[in-house]
Design goal:
two-stranded antiparallel sheet, signal, ABC transporter periplasmic binding protein yphF
């Protein structure tokens, strides 16, 4: 009996240690969206639209809401008639994703916005407000800058995991203190592969969403440099 008890304790310790081996951000990366959940919501959206003369079950947002945050799905309008319950990975069910629509005025398509990014941005902005101004580091383009995070109390520069490339991406800040994720690394990879149908002056963020379940919700618009073909901020 003692041997059995000892084995049980050792097993428990191994499980705990295994969990400790993975930092919280690594655990977060494993919380991936499930295709069947997205498809279920898409079917519900299509059914609602058909039964309601083209109307969409979305929440009301401000007119100037960024495009990838503009059409959040209102599950109260489609549950339980069009789907039985909230998707398990949705914010409404305690998950980390907000379900949104793109192409809402043409062919509405369900995508996901990672709300953990919003939490990271909120923390950076709180630190900026406590200091009174953004501690700019380098001028990137137009009204876009990098930040000196050491002056905000960070030991390391904060980054966000990209669902598009699997890489860690930095943040940028505008002159008015708004913080965004910088997706130039992801966009460069896509551009280098070719098969793009954009011209200088076009917003090329559609390259990110065309083959992904996600949207770059907290981003500035980008375009293509007419000389180098590199992704650049589409700002004044």
């Amino acid at each position: 009996m003692k041997k059995l008890t000892m084995m049980s304790v050792l097993t428990l310790v191994m499980v705990v240690l295994a969990g400790c081996m993975y930092p919280e951000d690594q655990k977060a990366k494993n919380q991936i969206p499930y295709e069947d959940q997205i498809n279920q919501v898409q079917n519900a959206i299509d059914g609602y639209k058909e039964k309601n003369q083209g109307l969409l079950p979305i929440k009301t947002t401000e007119k100037d809401t960024p495009i990838y945050q503009k059409y959040p799905i209102d599950f109260k309008k489609i549950i339980p008639q069009y789907m039985a319950e909230y998707p398990g990975n949705s914010f409404e069910a305690g998950g980390v994703f907000q379900y949104v629509l793109i192409n809402a005025e043409t062919e509405p398509e369900v995508k996901l916005s990672d709300l953990r990014i919003a939490e990271m941005i909120r923390d950076i902005k709180i630190r900026i407000r406590s200091q009174g101004y953004p501690p700019y580091k380098d001028h990137i383009a137009g009204n876009v800058y990098s930040l000196d995070y050491s002056k905000l109390g960070y030991k390391e520069d904060p980054v966000v995991y990209s669902p598009f490339s699997g890489q860690d991406l930095p943040f940028v800040v505008t002159g008015d203190g708004e913080v965004y994720v910088d997706y130039r690394i992801d966009l460069m990879q896509i551009i280098q592969k070719g098969d793009i149908d954009y011209q200088p002056g076009d917003d090329i963020r559609g390259l990110l969403v065309r083959d992904s379940a996600f949207v770059p919700a907290y981003s500035l618009p980008y375009t293509i440099d007419s000389e180098t073909n590199d992704p650049i901020f589409l700002v004044n």
